[in-house]
Amino acid sequence: MFNTRDRAEHTRKRKTISHTFSAKSISQFEQYIAKNLEELVRQWNRLSDEATRAGQEYAEIDCLQWFNYVAFDIIGDLAFGAPFGMLSKGKDIAEVRLTPDSPPTFAPAVQVLNRRGEVSNTLGCYPALKPFAKYLPDPFFRNGLKAVENLAGIATARVNHRLEAPPDEKNERVDLLARLMEGRDEHGNKLGREELTAEALTQMIAGSDTTSNTSCALLYWCLRTEGVMQKLTKEIDAVVPNGVTVPSFEDIKDLP
Fold it and tell me: What global pTM score does this model have?
């Protein structure tokens, strides 16, 4: 999926980026996913320990909120070279730069993404409104368009950090952004800064709230459906070594 409807441009992008999603490349991304999942487990263990010390039987956790944090940190790690730090801070926050040289500000990325999706869907149904949307009195449009701007600013800030990183730091990463930076079209041309930012932003939009919503739904139905957790725990315990917090794909690929 690319942000163009032009067939020739779509073909150029596909040739430039296709290697990014090869089986070999995807297997190299696992290390970054595992690191963020381990941080999620640490945070949930911390909340559980705090509840125990406070004399509570269990901790109350908003799982969707935390799945949003882990999804954004994973896609940030893969698409921009570093997590946003939402898991470690326990907050919805991300740096925004409207241009590569503008001063940084900060915005709630999950909220920004949701607002951007809502206003984009609405204007997609009524495209004639788009040129006038920012002048409409309803704050839905004003706030939504600001969210579109902020979301692009988040991508600009992170890509800018990566491109300005020392060569050694850039070369040691094997993530989505590294693969995008390596990509070349049939003429040997690499993606420019703006195109690189746009493609990284597409990964963030496509891979964050879908992941968090699906993860939350899976957990909900596993807990709600009688016998599922017991069966799942038994199957995982049979193949995952003791002391392993986050199993690898190799550990669980043959589960029923």
Answer: 0.81
